[in-house]
C-alpha cells in the first residue's frame, strides 16, 4: 500500500518536473521571424476594448489603430494583412506576455518609458502615436486650468503610470487632491459622470472616447494642460534585431508613404514612379526586402492592404470617426508634426 | 561483517525506517523542485535583462493613496505603500467580520422564529444574498450610493455640520494628536480592567455564595484610567468642522463610499452564509435541551443565550472559520470599486515597476499569512469551546 502510494507521488513529481523542464526551454533559440513564418501567423497583443485603437466590430472582426500596426507587419511578411491572431491583454499582464513569448508584438497603446525599456527585457518600435495625459472636468465647475484643482477628487485607472504622472504634476505646485482609483473602466467613467469625482484623467486620446460616450459631450471640457508625455510604441522582446528591423521599417513605410504621397488607391500607379526612393520602398528597385528576410514587395504589400499612416489614422481615429481626433503632434514633420521616417536608401 | 550487512538490510526492511525514508525523499524532492523552479526563473529573468529582487520596495512610490489608516505620503517607499494597503485590507475585513457575525446571528435565529413573517423575511434575505455573486452586489451598492445621493456640491446637511453626498458621509472630527492616542489607550485599559474586576467578583460570588455590591468597583476600573489620562495629558479639544470648498468638503472626517460599499457588500454576503451556519448549529442541539430549559423556567431568550447557543457553537465555529477566511479573501474585490486595498496598491506598484512576480509573491504571502493567523485564532477558540463538552 505504502509503496503504491509513494509511486503515485513520484509519478506526479516527475510529471511536474518534466513539464517545467519542457516549458522552461528557451523560446529565443529561434529567430522570431522563423517562428512566425513556420506558424503562419503573428501573435499580436492588443487591448480587449479601446474604441479607435482595438475593438471588435459588429461582425466580430478586430479593428483599430493598434490592430492595423500588426496587420502592417503581417502584410510585410505574408503579403496578407490578416495572418494575425489577436491576444486581448489587460494592462497588468501585457509586458509579461511579450517577455514569455505569448505574443510577438504588443500593440496596445503602451507608453515607451525608460524603466520599461531598460529593466523589462523589452524593445520598443517607433512611436506610432504621440499622446499625453490630460484632465477633463464638467463644464459647470468652470475650471480653466488643472492648477485650480486643489482639494478636488480625481477619478483614474490604475493600469498605467497615470497615478504617478498626476503626482509629478501636482507635487511641485503643492496641490493636494483625492484620488479615486478604479480597475474597471465602466465604474471609472460612471463615477465621474455621477459627480463622485470633479475631474477624470487619462491619456488625451482616451479622454476623447470618454467624452464621446457621455450623454451630452458638451457638458465636459478637456483642460488645456498635457501633464505627461505618452509616446505610444509597439513593444517586442529584446535581443532580436531582425524582428525589430521588420517592425521599425513596416511602420516607417506607413509614414514614408504618406510623406511621398503614396496611398492605397494610387500604389499600383506609383510602382511606375520615377522617384528612386518610392521605387526602393515599393520594391521596384533594390533588394531591401531581402535584407530584412522578406519578400521584396513587402512595402507595396503594406500600402496596398492598409494605406499610408494618414489613411490608417483617419480610418480609426480621425475627425470622421467617433473619437474625432485631429492629427496634432501626429502630423508629418513636414507639416509641423513629429512623425519622421528615416530615408529608404 | 555478516552481522553488519544483516543490520543494513534489516534497516531497509524496518517499517518505521522506511516510513521516515519515504517522507524524507518526498519532502526533499519538493524542496529540490522548488529550488529548481526558483533558480530557473531567476536565470531566465537575468537572461532577458528583466529586473528582479525586492530592492524596489525601498524606492519612492510616488503615487497617492486616498484612504489610509497609517500615515502615508507619495514620497514614502513602495514598501510603505504596500503596508498601507495591507492595513486597509485588514481594517475593512475586520469591520465586515464583526458586522457579518452580528447580522448572521440575528438572521440565523430569525430563520427559526415561530413568527412566519419573520422566518420568511430571513429566508428571503439569505437566499437573495447568497445566490448572487458578491462582485455584482459590490457594483450594486456602489452604484446605489453614487447615483442616488447628491453630488458633493449639493450635499445634504442632515444634522448641523454633518453632510451626506455621493462622496460619503462627512462629520466634524477632533484634530487628532498624540495625547488623544494616550486617552484612547487608557479607555481600552479601563475596559480590560472593568471586565477583569467583574469576572473576579462573579467568580467570588459563585465560590462564596455572598452577593456584594460590585458595580462601584467596576465603574471605578472602567473610568479611572481615562479620567487620569485626560487630567494628565490635557488633550486639545479643537474640532475640525467640514466646510464646503470649491470642489469638496474640507475638514472633518469622512466615511467614503468605496469603503462603505465594500463593507456593506462583504458583510451582507457573508452574513447570509453565517445565518445558515448559525441555523444548522442551533438545529444540531437536541430538542430535549429546550424542553429541559423550559422545565427549569427559563424564558426563550435566556434559553437561547445560556443553553442552546453555547452548545451550538461547537458546530458553528469550524464552518464559521471558513466563512471568515473567504470574507477576508473576498475583500480583494475592492479593486472593482476603487477602495485602495492590498491588491490595488500592489497592482499600481507592479505597473510602475514592472516586477510582477515579486508583487504577486508579496500579496500571496500576505493573504496566506493573515489567513493562517485567522485559522489559528479560530482553532484556538474552537478548542476552548470544545473543551466544555460534557
CATH architecture label of the largest domain in chain A:
3-Layer(aba) Sandwich
| Percent in helix of chain B | 55-70%
- Number of strand segments of chain B: 8
H-E order of chain A: HHEEEHEHEHEEEEHEHEHEEEHHHHHH
Total beta-strand segments of chain A: 14
Brief overview:
Chain A has 345 residues and is of the alpha/beta class. Chain A has helices spanning 2-23, 32-39, 65-78, 94-99, 114-119, 162-170, 185-193, 204-213, 241-260, 267-270, 276-281, 288-292, 298-306, 309-316; strands spanning 42-46, 55-56, 62-63, 84-88, 105-106, 122-124, 129-131, 133-138, 153-156, 178-181, 199-203, 220-222, 230-232, 235-237. In chain A, strands 10-9-11-8-12 form a five-stranded mixed beta sheet. In chain A, strands 4-1-5 form a three-stranded parallel beta sheet. Chain A has a two-stranded antiparallel sheet with strand order 2-3.
Describe the structure in your own words.
The complex is a heterodimer of chains A (about 350) and B (about 400). Chain A has helices spanning about 1-25, 30-40, 65-80, 95-100, 115-120, 160-170, 185-195, 205-215, 240-260, 265-270, 275-280, 290, 300-305, 310-315; strands at about 40-45, 55, 60-65, 85-90, 105, 120-125, 130, 135-140, 155, 180, 200-205, 220, 230, 235. Chain A has about 350 residues and is an alpha/beta fold. Chain A folds into 2 domains: about 30-130 and about 230-335, Periplasmic binding protein-like II (D-Maltodextrin-Binding Protein, domain 2); about 135-230, D-Maltodextrin-Binding Protein, domain 2. In chain A, the strands form 5 sheets. Chain A has a 5-stranded mixed beta sheet with strand order 10-9-11-8-12. The longest helix of chain A has 22 residues, at about 1-25. Chain B has about 400 residues and is mainly alpha-helical. Chain B folds into 3 domains: about 1-45; about 80-170 and about 250-385, MetI-like fold; about 175-235. Chain B has 12 helices and 8 strands. Chain B has helices spanning about 1-15, 15-45, 80-110, 115-130, 135-150, 180-210, 215-235, 255-285, 285-295, 300-330, 340-355, 355-385, and strands at about 155-160, 160-165, 170, 175, 240, 245, 250, 255. In chain B, the strands form 3 sheets. In chain B, strands 1-2-3-8 form a 4-stranded antiparallel beta sheet. A two-stranded antiparallel ribbon of chain B has the order 4-5. Chain B has a two-stranded antiparallel sheet with strand order 6-7. In chain B, a hairpin with a 2-residue loop joins β1 and β2. Chain B is globular.
Amino acid at each position: 500500500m505504502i509503496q503504491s502510494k509513494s509511486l503515485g507521488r513520484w509519478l506526479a513529481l516527475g510529471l511536474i518536473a518534466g513539464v517545467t523542464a519542457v516549458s522552461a526551454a528557451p523560446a529565443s533559440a529561434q529567430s522570431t521571424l522563423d517562428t512566425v513564418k513556420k506558424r503562419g501567423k503573428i501573435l499580436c497583443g492588443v487591448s480587449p476594448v479601446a474604441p479607435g485603437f482595438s475593438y471588435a466590430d459588429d461582425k466580430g472582426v478586430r479593428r483599430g489603430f493598434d490592430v492595423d500596426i500588426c496587420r502592417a507587419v503581417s502584410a510585410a511578411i505574408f503579403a496578407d494583412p490578416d495572418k494575425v491572431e489577436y491576444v486581448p491583454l489587460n494592462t497588468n499582464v501585457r509586458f509579461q506576455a511579450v517577455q514569455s513569448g505569448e505574443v510577438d508584438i504588443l500593440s496596445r497603446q503602451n507608453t515607451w518609458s525608460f524603466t520599461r525599456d531598460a529593466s523589462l527585457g523589452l524593445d520598443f518600435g517607433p512611436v506610432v502615436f504621440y499622446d499625453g495625459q490630460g484632465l477633463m472636468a464638467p463644464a459647470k465647475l468652470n475650471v480653466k486650468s488643472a492648477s485650480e484643482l486643489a482639494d478636488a477628487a480625481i477619478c483614474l485607472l490604475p493600469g498605467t503610470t497615470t497615478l504617478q504622472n498626476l503626482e509629478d504634476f501636482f507635487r511641485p505646485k503643492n496641490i493636494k487632491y483625492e484620488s479615486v482609483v478604479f480597475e474597471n473602466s465602466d465604474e471609472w467613467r460612471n463615477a465621474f459622470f455621477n459627480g463622485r469625482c470633479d475631474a477624470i484623467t487619462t491619456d488625451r486620446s482616451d479622454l476623447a472616447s470618454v467624452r464621446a460616450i457621455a450623454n451630452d459631450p458638451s457638458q465636459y471640457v478637456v483642460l488645456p494642460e498635457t501633464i505627461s508625455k505618452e509616446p505610444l510604441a509597439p513593444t517586442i522582446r529584446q535581443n532580436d534585431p531582425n524582428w525589430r528591423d521588420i517592425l521599425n521599417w513596416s511602420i516607417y513605410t506607413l509614414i514614408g508613404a504618406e510623406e511621398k504621397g503614396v496611398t492605397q488607391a494610387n500604389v499600383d500607379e506609383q510602382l511606375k514612379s520615377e522617384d528612386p526612393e518610392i521605387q526602393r520602398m515599393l520594391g521596384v528597385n533594390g533588394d531591401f526586402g531581402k535584407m530584412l528576410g522578406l519578400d521584396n514587395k513587402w512595402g507595396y504589400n503594406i500600402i496596398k492592404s492598409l494605406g499610408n499612416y494618414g489613411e490608417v489614422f483617419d480610418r480609426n481615429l480621425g475627425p470622421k470617426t467617433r473619437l474625432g481626433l485631429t492629427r496634432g503632434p501626429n502630423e508629418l514633420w513636414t507639416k509641423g508634426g513629429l512623425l519622421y521616417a528615416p530615408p529608404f536608401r | 561483517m555478516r552481522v553488519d550487512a544483516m543490520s543494513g538490510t534489516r534497516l531497509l526492511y524496518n517499517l518505521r525506517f522506511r516510513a521516515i525514508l519515504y517522507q524524507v525523499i518526498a519532502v526533499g524532492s519538493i524542496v529540490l523542485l522548488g529550488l529548481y523552479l526558483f533558480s530557473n526563473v531567476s536565470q531566465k529573468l537575468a537572461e532577458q535583462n528583466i529586473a528582479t529582487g525586492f530592492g524596489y520596495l525601498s524606492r519612492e512610490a510616488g503615487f497617492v493613496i486616498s484612504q489610509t489608516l497609517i500615515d502615508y505620503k507619495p514620497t514614502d517607499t513602495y514598501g510603505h505603500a504596500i503596508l498601507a494597503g495591507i492595513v486597509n485590507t485588514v481594517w475593512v475585513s475586520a469591520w465586515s467580520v464583526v458586522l457579518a457575525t452580528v447580522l448572521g446571528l440575528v438572521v440565523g435565529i430569525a430563520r427559526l422564529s415561530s413568527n412566519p413573517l419573520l422566518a420568511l423575511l430571513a429566508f428571503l434575505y439569505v437566499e437573495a444574498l447568497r445566490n448572487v455573486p458578491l462582485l455584482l452586489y459590490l457594483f450594486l451598492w456602489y452604484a446605489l450610493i453614487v447615483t442616488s445621493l447628491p453630488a458633493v456640491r449639493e450635499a445634504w446637511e442632515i444634522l448641523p455640520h454633518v453632510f451626506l453626498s455621493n462622496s460619503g458621509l462627512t462629520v466634524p472630527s477632533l484634530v487628532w494628536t498624540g495625547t488623544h492616542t494616550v486617552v484612547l489607550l487608557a479607555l481600552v485599559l479601563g475596559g480590560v480592567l472593568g471586565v477583569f474586576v467583574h469576572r473576579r467578583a462573579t467568580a467570588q460570588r459563585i465560590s462564596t455564595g455572598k452577593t456584594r455590591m460590585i458595580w462601584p468597583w467596576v465603574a471605578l476600573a472602567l473610568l479611572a484610567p481615562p479620567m487620569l489620562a485626560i487630567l494628565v495629558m490635557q488633550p486639545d479639544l479643537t474640532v475640525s468642522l467640514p466646510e464646503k470648498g470649491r470642489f469638496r468638503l474640507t475638514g472633518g472626517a469622512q466615511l467614503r463610499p468605496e469603503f462603505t460599499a465594500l463593507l456593506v457588500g462583504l458583510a451582507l454576503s457573508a452574513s447570509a452564509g453565517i445565518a445558515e451556519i448559525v441555523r444548522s448549529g442551533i438545529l444540531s442541539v437536541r430538542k430535549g435541551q429546550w424542553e429541559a430549559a423550559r422545565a427549569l423556567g427559563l424564558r426563550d431568550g435566556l434559553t437561547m443565550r445560556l443553553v442552546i447557543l453555547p452548545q451550538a457553537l461547537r458546530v458553528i465555529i469550524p464552518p464559521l472559520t471558513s466563512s471568515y477566511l473567504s470574507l477576508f479573501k473576498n475583500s480583494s474585490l475592492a479593486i472593482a470599486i476603487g477602495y485602495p486595498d492590498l491588491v490595488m496598491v500592489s497592482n499600481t506598484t507592479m505597473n510602475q515597476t514592472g516586477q510582477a512576480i515579486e508583487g504577486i509573491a508579496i500579496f500571496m504571502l500576505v493573504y496566506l499569512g493573515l489567513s493562517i493567523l485567522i485559522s489559528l485564532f479560530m482553532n484556538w477558540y474552537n478548542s476552548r469551546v470544545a473543551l466544555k463538552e460534557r
